[in-house]
Design goal:
Layout lengths: L4 E4 L8 H19 L7 H8 L5 E2 L2 H16 L9 H6 L12 H8 L7 E4 L4 E4 L12 H15 L5 E5 L3 E5 L10 E6 L7 E7 L2 E7 L4 E4 L2 E4 L2 E2 L4 E2 L5 E6 L2 H25 L4 E7 L6 E6 L6 E3 L5 E4 L1
Parallel strand pairs: 16-18
Antiparallel strand pairs: 1-5, 2-4, 3-4, 5-6, 6-9, 7-8, 8-17, 9-14, 10-11, 12-13, 14-15, 15-16
Helix pairs in contact: 1-6, 3-7, 6-7
């Protein structure tokens, strides 16, 4: 998953909590060994090699993750798609060497993606590819899923108050933070144009948060900037937003929806949150002048979003 994971616990609140936290961190390595496409022996790679030829049986929890991904693909109108790996490859982002592909290369990649072409058999717990060249890549949901599994381990050990994060951009918070009341854990939302600064803070209680943006992975071609977040419906990099943050019940959902919201943009994200009252979003776009940004929040009560004093932004509900 190419990032650091961290467990934060209120000091002295749970006996033996440090040992359980270390066990939760050890779990990340086991999950990496199941989910990664960068290790040839993982279960996901076994599926990618065989599922075009026959149905492949899948471990129970991984199958449930595939089902969630399929549901989110449908709910977001295809904006979230775990089969979009060929697009990342043709644009050079899989190799972290961005390149400008030809229209024919993009068209060929689009022929090899589409979650609607992945058959999930719940009775036999199998996955099968119904289009040649398909593959599954969990980069936009795997970190959140790993945090959920870490949280389950801590819950089962009786550690009920914790904050987990993977790479700073995926967060799972349970119960309340140190020295706090029901307000929960206070999580900073980074300023996409000012590294190290925050746009504001959001309070989380028994929720998860994910943030997506293309501020660190991009390339420039003929004076235009191309980011690594791609629209699987068009095959092209997305522009229009600096970052998208999603708040949901689980880490996997928040991780996936932050990517989907970035692709969907403001109007479609607003409609999604209106239809899903358990989901909230914070979208950051161009403010139009003087380096300002525009912050749009959806499904988030005003008392849960606290803009940073002096932040150069304007907010829209």
């Amino acid at each position: 998953m190419a990032c650091e994971f961290e467990v934060q616990l209120p000091a002295g609140r749970h006996d033996g909590a440090a040992g359980h936290a270390l066990a939760a961190l050890d779990l990340v390595e086991a999950l990496e060994d199941q989910l990664s496409i960068y290790r040839p022996h993982t279960e996901v790679m076994r599926i990618n090699r065989a599922a075009a030829a026959r149905p492949v049986e899948v471990e129970r929890r991984l199958f449930a993750l595939f089902q969630m991904a399929a549901e989110l693909h449908a709910d977001t109108g295809g904006a979230f798609d775990i089969t979009s790996g060929p697009l990342s490859k043709v644009w050079g982002f899989s190799q972290r060497e961005g390149r400008m592909p030809t229209d024919d290369e993009v068209a060929a990649a689009l022929e090899r993606i589409g979650m609607s072409h992945v058959a999930l058999d719940a009775t036999n717990r199998t996955v099968e590819f119904r289009r040649p060249g398909l593959s599954l890549h969990l980069n936009c949901i795997g970190k959140g899923y790993a945090l959920d599994r870490m949280g389950e381990l801590l819950d089962s050990a009786g550690v009920g108050d914790y904050l987990l994060h993977g790479g700073q951009s995926s967060v799972v918070a349970r119960r309340i933070g140190p020295g706090m009341s029901a307000a929960g854990w206070s999580i900073g939302v980074p300023h996409p144009l000012a590294p190290g600064e925050r746009l504001g803070e959001v309070a989380l209680v028994n929720e998860a948060l994910g943030t997506s943006g293309s501020g660190t992975q991009f390339f420039e071609h003929e004076g235009r900037r191309y980011g690594h977040l791609l629209d699987p419906r068009t095959g092209r990099p997305v522009d229009g937003l600096y970052s998208a943050t999603a708040i949901a019940r689980t880490g996997a959902e928040a991780d996936a929806l932050s990517t989907a919201f970035y692709v969907m943009g403001v109007d479609a994200t607003a409609a999604f949150c209106a239809e899903h009252p358990d989901v909230a979003a914070i979208l950051v776009g161009d403010g139009g002048e003087n380096g300002e940004v525009r912050v749009s929040t959806f499904g988030l009560a005003a008392d849960r979003w606290r803009p940073t004093n002096g932040a150069n932004c304007e907010s829209l509900q």
